[in-house]
Design a protein that fits this description.
The protein is an alpha+beta fold. The protein folds into 3 domains: 1-26 and 412-451, no CATH class; 31-161, 3-Layer(aba) Sandwich (Protein Transport Mog1p, Chain A); 180-404, no CATH class. The protein is 32% helix and 31% strand. The protein has 9 helices and 21 strands. The chain has helices spanning 56-71, 132-150, 155-161, 220-228, 248-262, 329-342, 347-367, 372-404, 423-432, and strands spanning 5-6, 35-38, 44-49, 76-77, 89-98, 104-113, 121-128, 167-170, 176-180, 185-190, 193-197, 203-213, 240-241, 269-279, 282-290, 297-311, 314-324, 344-345, 407-412, 417-422, 437-439. Strands 10, 11, 12, 13, 14, 15, 16 and 17 form an 8-stranded mixed sheet that branches. Helix 2 (132-150) runs antiparallel to helix 3 and helix 7 (347-367) packs across helix 8 (372-404). The chain is globular and about 75 Å long. 37% of the residues are buried.
Length: 451
C-alpha cells in the first residue's frame, strides 16, 4: 500500500515514500525537460513534467533537489500545505541564499500537481526575496495559463493561487513581523503580540498571552479584592481573574468578557461549533461569534493553551485567533495559513520590553506580602516557562496544521522513526502492525522531524 505523506529526517531536499510493509525509500531523479519563463515585471519560473516519479512526495523531492541545483544551496522550506478541494497538489514556500548569484537572498514557491494515473508535473517560481511577494501573483496567473494551454493540470496552481501575496510588515516596536495581504493593516502590536484587521471584517490575533489570577487561591483572592475594590474596578493591564482548572470553553468566554469589560464593551455572543483537545492543556475551538460591532456573525478559529501556575494562583493563557465571514472561509483559509506561517518574533526586543512586566509582577507580589526573593524566583520560573512555551507553541502549530490537513503523526517503534500521514493511511498502517506502529501525541513531536 502506498502511503500519502512525508517521512523526513528533516524538512530537506530528500523526500521519502514509506510503505506499511517495508521501510523502503524511493528517491528518483527528475529529468531536465523543463521550460523557463522570465516575467516582464520580475521573477522567473520553470515548469514541466517530473519524469521518473510516480508519487507527489517523490516529485516534490525531485523539485527541491532542482532548487538546490539551481542556486547551489539547500533551500529552507516552510510547512507543506494543500488547500481545500486540491488533493491532487502540494506546495511549499522556500528561501535560499543563492551561492550561484553571490549569496543573493531569494524566495520562491515549489508546486507539484498530480492527477490519478498521470505523470506528476512540477513548477518552481522564484524572485529576489524583497520582490517575491509582489511578483508571485502574476507568476501564478501566468503558470495557470501555460499549464492550461499545454493541456496539463492547473488545479494545483489555482489552489495555491488562493493564497494572496503577502507584504512583510514590521511591528511598530520592532518586536516581530508578519506578512499581510493587500487591504490588511496592523491595529496594534507590542511585545510579540499582533492584532491585524482585513477589508471584509477579517481579523487575526497572534501571540496573545493573558496573565490570569486565580480568585480561589488563598494568596491571590484577597489581593484581587483589594485591587478591584470588591469587584468595582477591573484588574490592571491584561490581567483577568479565573479559577485555574475552569472548563476550557468557559475560560475562553471569561477571558473575552473580562478584557472587553476593561474597554467598556459588552460581551460577544459566542456559539461553540467544535472543540478539539490538542494535548498539553491546549484546545482548538471553532466558534461563531458576534462582536456587536456591526459586522454580524463571524466564523472564528481559536487555539488556546492554559499553562500551569508559575507562582501560587498565577498562570498564563495563550491565544491565536483567526476570524472571518462564513462566506470567505474557503477563499481566505490559504491566506490565513500563509500569514500565520510568516509570523516572526524578535526575542531580544521582547525580553527588553518584559522588564516593565517584572515591575508589575513584583508589585503584585508586594501587595500579596510575598518576599522579594520569592518574587525574583517566580520571575526566573516565568522566563523558563516563556522559552518552554515557544517550543510548545511550535508543536501546537504543527498539530493544528495536521488537524486542518486531516493528518496524523505515527512512529515506527522498531526503527525509532516518525512520519506524517493522512488519517486514513495512518490508521491502516497502525492497524496493520499495532506492535510496531503507533500514534504520536503532540507533546512527543520531535523538533526538526515533526515540526
Amino acid at each position: 500500500m502506498q502511503v500519502r505523506g512525508f517521512f523526513p529526517a528533516r524538512v530537506r531536499a530528500a523526500m521519502w515514500v514509506v510503505t506499511a510493509a517495508v521501510g523502503l525509500a524511493v528517491v528518483a531523479r527528475a529529468d531536465d525537460s523543463f521550460k523557463m519563463i522570465h516575467q516582464p515585471g520580475g521573477g522567473e519560473m520553470v515548469y514541466g513534467p517530473v519524469t521518473g516519479q510516480t508519487t507527489m512526495p517523490g516529485a516534490m523531492g525531485a523539485m527541491l533537489r532542482k532548487v538546490h541545483g539551481q542556486f547551489g544551496e539547500r533551500p529552507q522550506v516552510s510547512r507543506f500545505f494543500r488547500t481545500k478541494g486540491s488533493d491532487d497538489s502540494v506546495a511549499t514556500f522556500f528561501t535560499v541564499n543563492a551561492k550561484s548569484q553571490g549569496n543573493k537572498p531569494m524566495a520562491g514557491l515549489v508546486l507539484v500537481a498530480m492527477t490519478a494515473g498521470q505523470q506528476p508535473t512540477g513548477a518552481l517560481l522564484y524572485d529576489d526575496a524583497k520582490h517575491f511577494h509582489a511578483s508571485m501573483g502574476p507568476m501564478m496567473k501566468k503558470l495557470n495559463e501555460v499549464w492550461a494551454h499545454s493541456g496539463g493540470t492547473s488545479s494545483g496552481a489555482a489552489a495555491v493561487g488562493h493564497a494572496k501575496p503577502l507584504h512583510v510588515t514590521a511591528f511598530p516596536d520592532n518586536s516581530g513581523s508578519i506578512g499581510l495581504p493587500d487591504g490588511w493593516q496592523i491595529s496594534s502590536a507590542r511585545q510579540g503580540t499582533m492584532h491585524a484587521s482585513g477589508p471584509n471584517g477579517e481579523s487575526a490575533h497572534i501571540g496573545v498571552y493573558v496573565p490570569v489570577l486565580d480568585p480561589s487561591n488563598p494568596q491571590q483572592g484577597p489581593m484581587i479584592q483589594r485591587e478591584t475594590r470588591g469587584g468595582q474596578l477591573p484588574l490592571p493591564g491584561m490581567y483577568v481573574a479565573i479559577p485555574y482548572g475552569t472548563e476550557p470553553f468557559r475560560t475562553l468566554q471569561e477571558i473575552d468578557r473580562q478584557l472587553r469589560a476593561k474597554r467598556h464593551q459588552s460581551p460577544p455572543a459566542m456559539e461553540l461549533i467544535d472543540a478539539q483537545d490538542l494535548g498539553n492543556h491546549c484546545t482548538h475551538f471553532k466558534v461563531h461569534i458576534d462582536q456587536h460591532d456591526g459586522t454580524g456573525r463571524m466564523f472564528s478559529s481559536i487555539n488556546m493553551c492554559v499553562f500551569p501556575p508559575f507562582m501560587p494562583g498565577h498562570y498564563t493563557v495563550s491565544l491565536n485567533q483567526a476570524t472571518l465571514p462564513d462566506r470567505l472561509i474557503d477563499e481566505d483559509k490559504p491566506t490565513f495559513q500563509a500569514m500565520f506561517q510568516s509570523y516572526k518574533t524578535n526575542d531580544t526586543v521582547i525580553e527588553g520590553e518584559s522588564q516593565a512586566q517584572i515591575t508589575q509582577i513584583h508589585e503584585i507580589g508586594r501587595r500579596a506580602q510575598m518576599q522579594a526573593d520569592a518574587s525574583h524566583e517566580a520571575w526566573d520560573i516565568h522566563q523558563q516557562a516563556y522559552h518552554n512555551q515557544q517550543d510548545s507553541q511550535d508543536k501546537r502549530y504543527a498539530a493544528f496544521d495536521n488537524y486542518i490537513l486531516d493528518q496524523s503523526v505515527i512512529r515506527d517503534t522498531q526503527e525509532n522513526a516518525h512520519g506524517t500521514f493522512y488519517n486514513a493511511d495512518a490508521e491502516a498502517i497502525v492497524k496493520s502492525n499495532p506492535n510496531r506502529y503507533e500514534y504520536v501525541p503532540t507533546q512527543d513531536y520531535v523538533k526538526g522531524i515533526d515540526y
